[in-house]
User: What shape does this take?
Amino acid sequence: DWWRTECTSMAKSLHEMRKRLD
Assistant: This one.
């Protein structure tokens, strides 16, 4: 499912951003 891949990539990006903020 392409939407599932999109959600996963978006979640990964958010996770990376949070890591940098911390």
Observations:
- The radius of gyration is 10 Å.
- The helical segments are 2-21.
- DSSP finds one helix and no strands in the chain.
